[in-house]
Amino acid sequence: MAVKIIKSKNFVETDFVESLAEVPVEEYKPWPENDKLKIVGKPVSRIDAYEKVSGTASYTTDKFLPNMVYGKILRSPHPNAILKNLNTEKAEKLEGVLKILSFKNCPEISWYYDTSLLFDKNLRYQGDEVACVAAISERIALEALKLIEVEYETLPFVTTASEAMMSESPKVHGWGNILDGKPDTYVRGDVEKGFNEADQIIEEEFNTQVVVHNPTEVHCSLANWDDDKLTIWDSTQAIFSVRDTVAASLKIPSSKVRVIKKFMGGGFGSKLEAGKHTIMAALISRDIGKPVFISVDRKEMNLAVGNRPDSNQKLKIGVKKDGTITALSHISYGSVGAYPDSAGCSWPLKTIYLCPNVKTEEYSVLTNSGRSRAMRAPGHVQGTFALEAIIDDAAEKIGMDPLEFRLKNYAETDQVFNVPYTSKKLKDAYLKGAEIIRWKRRNKTPGSQNSEVKNGIGMATQIWWGGGGPPAYAALKLNRDSSINVFAGSQDLGTGTYTFIAQVAAEVLEIPVEKIKVDIGDTDFPYCPLSGGSMTAPSVAPAIRDAAEQMKGKLISAAAAILNLPEEELMYSQGLVSSIKEKDKKISITEIVSKTRNRELITNGAREKNPDGYATNSFGVQFADVSVDTLTGKVKVNKIAAAYDIGRTLNPKTLYNQIHGGIIQGLGYALFEERLLDRKTGKVLTTNLHSYKIPTIKDAPEIEIAIVSQFDPLNSSIGVKGVGEPAIIPTAAAIGNAVYNAIGKRIRSLPITPDKIIKALYS
Amino acid sequence: MNTQLKNIKFICNDSDVEINIHPGTTVLDFIRNTLRLTGTKEGCREGDCGACTILIGELINNRLIYSSANSCLLPMGHMNGKHLVTIEGLNLKKTLNPVQQAFVDEGGTQCGFCTPGFIISLTGYLLNANNYILSDAVNSLDGNICRCTGHIGIKRAVEKILQNFQYANNNETEKILLLIENNFLPEYFKNILNRLKEISLSLKEEFKATEKSKYIVSGGTDLFVQKWDDIINSDIVLINKSKEKLITEVDGKFFIMGEATVSDLINSEIIKSIFPDIKNYFNLFGSLPIRNRATVAGNIVNASPIGDITCFLLALNATVHLSNESLKRTVPLKDFFKGYKSLDKAPDELIESVSFEITSEKFLFNFEKVSRRTYLDIASVNSSVYLEILNGEIKEIHLSAGGVAPIPLYLKKTRNFLLNKKPEVDIIIDGAAILNEEISPISDARGSAEYKRLLLRQLFYAHFLKLFPEIINAEELL
């Protein structure tokens, strides 16, 4: 099939990324509604479930190679220090220690956008890497860490964005603490004019906490060299970016690096970048000629591999009596930690509600703490909590129902790029969600229930990208036993990538899912994007369809040759190629394959380009029903109703998993999770899962989900939008609004803990 | 380093194992690194995620009893004569078992890393419960954290399993046979009872303390979180459960052996008969695998200012029975704590048992606890109260509070004030004022001092609101 190379611009996590992509010239007609499909849209069980429930699934942390040795990392105990001296003599003498890597013997490898090195003498947060020991066992490596003598010169430090902004504060790097020296600013219309036109102006301030991804499997890598070829098994969401970072760091061609990941225990954004430990494993392995496995422990997980930045947000909204929003402004400050990242959170405010006059200023501020990384819907989770609270407050101020207020300010088009959406069914989602939660039950006067335990209902909206796009490729191989192998360099984080790939191929070829074997998570396979930004399914599924459609074409072509009939006269259906004219002239895949002898049929598919002049976004709403014990301040979430426009449902079973999981992470963000940092010492207090609280099965509420979309007709021939991130975005905001509805007091900072509730009620 | 090797015999899944090993080696390290059974995962190494959950089968009075435990906190020494079950030991030859199949069908697994732990825990429930109740089955998973599914698919899987399989019987042997018959367990479970009996005949004597002994390990649920890397380099003593009765009553006097676990306490018929709500109190304590291992003595000697068991026992005005080689003595629990993490106990003394007396048949009791996350969390503040009422007046009261001082507090002044008064709103408000003077909370990760004061007042009120709903109402109090 004819292809061409285009410049493709896709939204990845927090930014547009432009890349050259090979796309098919001709595009397929979108599939019809799911009820007309046979396999896609059905609740197919995970094809990799057997391995997971039987314990045979081999994760990176389970890999074992003969002669494998173990690495452990020594980290700075200080929030800001200079490494004056390092003495590894005693550690080297410990029996079983094979290599100690540090600034003394490691080549200078640039890190954090050239602001630091793999081993840097400037240690800018508690957890910055000092040295790495490789030994014959993990225990000996840990013992050796204790024997390394380090001389630190401790320096003054700064732990919060507000402190860091002060001119007299210590500078995390030589330059100022505000990234780029200024906020990221956006202006639409004239906010002053907009506020002047308003009947009511509401100004509020919100704070959100730092939270940590804490996937169940820790970050880990196993590196092994054969001659000049390096293989890395890595718990990663992005095999190709790990490959490229490793190749660049070691100054070797990327063709010499192969990165493999079959199973992984979650990532949530923290595993989108190559880790320093991965480079260390590769370097030491090359040096000592043995496979090196390095994993971080749970404490390091909570110090050094990323987090969702905190936020301080000042919002201002102008509304008319009739409910029209006239102006919105937003100033946010977020601490990105010790190295550059983005802490912006204005996007939802720029786009969700119709508003001609908008101004936002996003400050990303450096502090002496662990650097932030993309975490499930970066920015949107923080921004939505504040936005959806002030929207409720504005509705209350003018005496309007919060749902009606949102419908009144419904945006039909994308206001930032001034283009239409490929599809938007948020209105349907609002109405469906309200019906499920029985919105009319809510307290007309917040806090008015006359009981010790008070119930409340609240809602919140979400917007995200998740349209995906090229480049994404896949190869199909038809085997002699008529089964199919799919090869694609995508990753399954537990999200269901394996399963939907099999479903799409099976749908096109009209054969059972069991006939499809999916091979992903290997850089030797055709390129697919990293698994983040809710773009795996919308990017990869169309490439699978293309490859499968081409396979159908090849089967027809082969059948034409075998049956001596013109291709135009043949049609493909359920594993059979048959003549349109003469019904008895037909041949099955199995027969075609046997006739082709050893020649397997192979096709390559590509994701088509996104339509020009459109924005693709997912939309959704969550309604929360909560109870608040006014005596003890305990909040119980009884039910979440979630209604979404996410285009086509590929598999309701895996889709619901994703939504459930996002909601519970959102619940943790709303009520429990918080990285606490002692401002006096600059040290993290919550370095384990004992102090860092993830929701348990007992905290999980009832969840009811409604998908209001059939498929997106314009984004791709599959019409699926991603859901991983949309699922978490509105939860904390909906719970916050429900708590307000229950007790009549607004908790403006997250998490909403019992202490904040009883202080609000009794202080 | 590592001098103290011990010979340990046990069954791992279907295989007999005999090994010389440091008894403080964690079971997790042994099964993953030595046996290379990697279905058991390491998630946190501190008993907070449940990815490493395994089952222990042990002979108790000639019965084979299984319980779940976190293998990261479990010393190999405790496996002597036991049956260790990992996820690999639950796999059938040809098909998935019904628990595994339900997890597949109902979306109970996503990234899959936590899944073996969940399946182990649930199988432990099926082996343990005398009759299957959905909420109990779900609660048995409170020590397993899933970061992907939101637990909803897992709950549905549990529901489906119980819909398809119901059973009520307290005979372990019959239960095991039935679980084998229904494919929940592989065939080899049939012979475990006899195999364990055989092993028990050849077991070497128990480990004894020597002057070199650095750690005394009972349940190990806190020690192994703090000191696992040192334990393995030290000489240790393991305390094994005695075969005698762990909880007894004689004429209103109750004795709890030091090595009784929190689960033993919750499941004790004797305790249940006097504290019908005991399960509700201590379902707020850790998680099931922790409750299965954490001991009463451990909770006391840990000397945490917010120990839940200590808080409970303080309000029963309990007595601690100590012993060493030569001496036995008793100390009232309220006098046992000398200062932060400091006890009236010599290093060689062990808590043999704890006792308390209940003289009135109509006593009232309540336990309250608030933490950031309701379950599987350390309290910000906890409090217990014991009350006897005569002619509408408080004839006896014991009140305790945790998290509001360097030690678990017995609230003496508040007690004295309330004694012989009527439980009425004004009295309780005045009592709260005295309570406020009696405590000295500090600000920490679990809350500010100001908050803890406010919270204890709320819990103090909650006691009376719960115990005297006819006399006291919230609006008047607040």
Architecture overview:
The complex is a heterodimer of chains A (763) and B (478). Chain A has 763 residues and is α+β, with helices and mostly antiparallel strands. Chain A folds into 3 domains: 196 residues, Aldehyde oxidase/xanthine dehydrogenase, molybdopterin binding domain (Aldehyde Oxidoreductase, domain 4), CATH 3.30.365; 170 residues, Aldehyde Oxidoreductase, domain 4 (2-Layer Sandwich), CATH 3.30.365.10; 311 residues, Aldehyde Oxidoreductase, domain 4, CATH 3.30.365. Helix content of chain A is 26%, strand content 27%. Chain A has 18 helices and 34 strands. In chain A, the strands form 10 sheets. A 7-stranded mixed sheet of chain A has the order 5-9-3-16-13-14-15, with helices on both faces. A 5-stranded mixed sheet of chain A has the order 11-19-18-17-12, with helices on both faces. Chain A is globular, with a radius of gyration of 27 Å. The mean pLDDT of chain A is 96. Chain B has 478 residues and is of the alpha+beta class. Chain B has 2 domains: 197 residues, Roll (Ubiquitin-like (UB roll)); 231 residues, 2-Layer Sandwich (Uridine Diphospho-n-acetylenolpyruvylglucosamine Reductase, domain 3). Helices cover 33% and strands 21% of the residues of chain B. Chain B has 19 helices and 18 strands. Chain B has a 5-stranded mixed sheet. In chain B, helix 17 runs antiparallel to helix 18. The longest helix of chain B has 19 residues. Chain B is globular. At the A-B interface, helix 1, helix 16 and helix 18 of A face helix 2, helix 3, helix 5 and helix 18 of B.
